[in-house]
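Take a sample.
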Amino acid sequence: MARKKLATAWLCGCSGCHMSFLDLDEGLFDLTEKVEITATPIADLKEPPEVDIALIEGGVCNEENLRVLKLFRERAKVLVSLGDCAGFGCVPMLRNFFDKQDVLDRAYVEAESTALGKEPDEEVPKLLEKVEPIHHFVKVDAFIPGCPPEASAIRTAIEELAAGRLPEGKIDLQYE
């Protein structure tokens, strides 16, 4: 059986889901018999490849997140929402309680750690009015819940998807 192509992406959040994925340790080697990992957040892809399976972590916070998400949806046969931030917004969605300009000012103007006194000169992705889970923008085929999901749950889901089956216990997330 030919291996399925798998890509993972991190939009906005804490990256705990990918840390859980790495917790598979030697189990990652076992998975390479079933999937070829073609992209990860470490690669910092601007243009995702065409894949059989895409695991997307994090909420959609800015225009760049949205662009990457839509490209993954176009180029992936199966798109999986990975973790609670991608499924519900969770941690990144906390920004929704604050004025967008106040967030930028606190990060770039007022923060002692940056000492810029102004927003950076280089291009900063334009923040969306509010953070949303990924299924508010694209169709999601499966969801792996958890904050972060257990490594074993990620592995089981990947094995099921590699075999051409949607994981058991899939939660339907509706595209809005």
